[in-house]
Specification:
Layout: H1 12-17, H2 22-34, H3 36-43, E1 57-60, E2 67-70, E3 75-76, H4 78-82, H5 87-90, E4 94-99, E5 108-111, H6 112-128, E6 136-140, H7 145-157, E7 160-163, H8 170-180, E8 184-188, E9 191-193, E10 196-198, H9 200-208, E11 216-220, E12 234-236, H10 237-243, E13 253-254, E14 258-264, E15 272-277, H11 279-292, E16 300-303, H12 310-322, E17 326-330, H13 341-349, E18 353-356, H14 358-367, H15 370-373, E19 382-385, H16 392-402, E20 409-411, E21 446-449, E22 462-468, E23 478-479, H17 483-491, E24 498-506, E25 512-517, E26 521-524, E27 527-530, H18 531-539, E28 544-554, E29 558-567, H19 575-588, E30 597-600, H20 614-621, H21 638-645
Parallel strand pairs: 4-17, 6-7, 6-8, 7-14, 8-11, 11-12, 16-17, 16-18, 18-19, 19-20, 29-30
Antiparallel strand pairs: 1-2, 3-13, 4-5, 9-10, 14-15, 15-23, 21-22, 22-24, 24-25, 26-27, 28-29
Helix pairs in contact: 2-3, 6-7, 8-9, 11-12, 14-16
The protein binds ligand 6R9.
Ligand 6R9 binds at residues 264, 309-311, 386-389, 411-416, 437, 500-502, 514, 517, 523, 528.
Length: 650
């Protein structure tokens, strides 16, 4: 990418009307770094406190004694902040617009008053099922309003939710129910998506076979389709909601009490439970939602993510609702019934801010501009992207075809761990460049480090690994049940810093570009996947002796999953076995982990100490084997020639 990328300055209208313009950004950023306490003390007033805090920040990034506390002696309730405090002025305003999978089915407009009643009902039902403050609840739901009610109901009674993406397998669900020792799983009979319906309850039934008998199952009947029922364990949500009281007093929670756990992939081992706090998280989600998307009262805002991912937590539910926004929730997929669905919805609900992922943009770009051009997109004011680096071609299409050159694009870089945006251009303050995350958000101190030495690289026109030098309120607090793993993952490689796992470039102008993961995490359609997870699924198959998994460039998904598989002696490498392995991984983890390419590997390139040389496997998968680099430490160099000869990505 050239350093002289084209830049798109904010329009005069944006610069004048936005919450933050260039001068304000500079002054606020300076204040946020020089006086973090003062800055966040003021920003924390955007939420209502039941007990005001006296201390703001109490943080130590020293490996071995990491602690992160924000507003630690304050008390608040997230559900009351997202609902109750708006009732005086917004009770009849739409809080959630729900657009079902099937466009023939009616959309729902849920007002703040209704959201209050539904959340209270759900909260009372959970209490009746024995859930109390600090207990865990796993949510395994499609994109239906009940997902938001469930999240807010947990927050209301002080229970900690852990959402499992509805596309995950029964095995993945079971391991998260057990890992968090949840008391209740909330699921639906079926999950309609793209005209098909996933039998979620059947998946939950299978998962619960591997969980404690005491775990209860609350079932939202979305389609009314047939399911099996275990009396005493399964409860019909809609039947219970009819009689449940629609008021429920919100619990006073400490700012540092966990709000939720969200499992995410890392470079080693099984997914870890990222823990987010109540106070700091909400302040940060609310502020970033308002400022990054320049959300104004009366706007209709739509984030296309699933609530199973962090983006859905912060930018469908908590951030927007804390701000009293109207947030759209979509059950379906961008290409059903056809590739104009997103734009139909924008037209139908007069969406003002639209936030999606590069993989969706690329897929829709491939279908042609005519699907966009038939729709009236004049309501759009701003576009956003998240999840992976966006290639300039997709950025330009988004800008020209969707935004008609009049909508700023905010390319928001952040992570499950960060709770909210860490780097993004602000629409009224910064010029944008296709593919750049541009500027740090308030309070964020990015540092670029030399990968090997960990030395700080100063100046512009430089590249290295990206760390953050100090805490921000939305930062994760720990790994559920394993604080040591938290410290080791994020604070041990580069002492004194939070290590993001991403590489980055600071260009000649001092603007930031994320270059992708520097660890063994791959990004498939914006979904994080640890190569170790796919490998351990593969080697769990009786015919597989060894497996190594790497990412390779994929036109639509960003990265595809490339597997090198060594079979047990006497096993035949057949097409049927390939299909079997693909299906195996889908059932072990979920369809998003489905291998794209499986290469039979009689041997894997290893060092003499037995370490698989992934660098070489990555190059072969990228079809870039001319540049294999140093292979002198290989135990058997000839296995490389064999792998190149039979490579799958030509
Ligand atoms: C929010 C979310 C985090 C990883 C992150 C990075 C990649 C996310 C990006 C981006 C370039 C962006 N990523 N946003 N890369 N530009 N705007 O996606 O969280 O699922 O935890 O993934 O995604 O590699 O480290 P999560």
């Amino acid at each position: 990418m050239s350093n002289a990328a084209k830049t798109y300055p904010p329009s005069t209208e944006m610069a004048e009307g936005a919450h933050v313009n260039a001068a304000k950004y500079d002054a606020m950023y300076k204040a946020s770094i020089e006086d973090a306490d003062g800055f966040w003390r003021e920003q924390a007033q955007r939420v209502d406190w039941m007990t005001p805090f006296t201390t703001v920040k109490d943080v130590d990034f020293t490996f071995g004694q990491v602690k992160i506390n924000w507003f630690a002696d304050g008390e608040l309730n997230v559900s009351a902040n997202c609902i109750d405090r708006h009732l005086e002025t917004r009770s009849d305003q739409t809080a959630i617009i729900w657009e079902p999978d099937n466009p023939e089915e009616a959309a729902q407009h849920i007002t703040y008053k209704e959201l209050h009643a539904q959340t209270c009902k759900m909260a009372n039902i959970l209490r009746d099922l024995g859930v109390g403050k600090g207990d865990r609840v796993v949510i395994y739901l499609p994109m239906i309003p009940e997902a938001a009610y469930a999240m807010l109901a947990c927050a209301r009674i002080g229970a900690i939710h852990s959402i499992v993406f509805a596309g995950f397998s029964p095995d993945a669900l079971a391991s998260r129910v057990n890992g968090s020792e949840a008391k209740v799983v909330i699921t639906a009979d079926y999950a309609p998506r793209g005209g098909k319906a996933t039998p979620l309850k059947t998946n939950a039934d299978q998962a619960l076979l591997h969980c404690k008998d005491s775990v209860k199952c609350l079932v939202v009947k979305r389609t009314g389709g047939q399911t099996t029922w275990t009396e005493g364990r399964d409860f019909d949500y809609k039947a219970l909601a009819k009689d449940a009281a629609d008021i429920c007093a919100p619990e006073a929670m400490n700012a540092e009490d966990p709000l939720f756990i969200l499992y995410t992939s890392g470079s080693t081992g099984q997914p870890k439970g990222v823990v987010h706090s109540t106070g700091g998280y909400l302040v940060y989600a609310a502020m970033t939602h308002e400022v990054t998307f320049d959300y104004h009262d009366g706007d209709v805002y739509w984030c296309t993510a699933d609530v199973g991912w962090v983006t859905g937590h912060s930018y469908i539910v908590y951030g927007p609702l804390a701000n009293g926004a109207t947030t759209l929730m979509f059950e379906g997929v961008p290409t059903y019934p056809d590739a104009s669905r997103f734009w139909q919805i924008c037209e139908k609900h007069k969406v003002n801010q639209f936030y999606t992922a590069p993989t969706a943009i690329r897929a829709l770009m491939g279908k042609g501009a005519e699907f966009v051009e038939g729709c009236d997109l004049s309501s759009l004011k701003l576009l956003g992207t998240v999840g992976e680096p966006i290639n300039p071609e997709a950025w330009n299409w988004y800008n020209d075809v969707v935004g008609k050159g009049t909508c700023p694009i905010v390319d928001t870089w952040w992570q499950t761990e960060t709770g909210g945006h860490l780097m993004t251009p602000l629409p009224g303050a910064h010029a944008t460049k296709p593919g750049a995350a541009m500027k740090p958000f308030f309070g964020i101190k990015p540092v670029v480090l030399e990968p090997a030495s960990g030395d700080i690289i100063e100046g512009n026109g430089v590249e290295g690994v990206l760390c953050i030098a100090d805490s921000w309120p939305g930062q994760m607090r720990t790994v559920w049940g394993d604080h040591e793993r938290f410290e080791k993952t994020y604070f041990s490689d580069y002492k004194g810093y939070y290590f993001t796992g991403d590489g980055c470039r600071r260009d000649e102008d001092g603007d930031y570009w994320i270059t992708g993961r520097v660890d063994d995490v791959i990004n498939v359609s914006g979904h994080r996947m640890g190569t170790a997870e796919v490998e351990s699924a593969l080697v769990a198959h009786p015919k597989v002796a060894e497996a190594a998994v790497v990412g390779y460039p994929h036109d639509i998904k960003g990265q595809g999953i490339y597997c090198y598989v060594s079979l047990m002696a006497d096993e035949e490498p057949t097409e049927e076995l390939r299909t079997e392995l693909r299906n195996w991984v889908r059932t072990e983890i979920g369809p998003i982990a489905s291998p794209d390419l499986i290469q039979w590997a009689p041997g894997l390139p290893k060092t003499r100490s037995g370490k698989i040389m992934r660098r070489i496997l990555r190059k072969i998968a990228e079809n870039d084997f001319g540049a294999l680099g140093d292979t002198s430490t290989l135990a058997e160099p000839e296995v490389v020639d064999e792998l190149i000869e039979n490579r799958m990505n030509r």
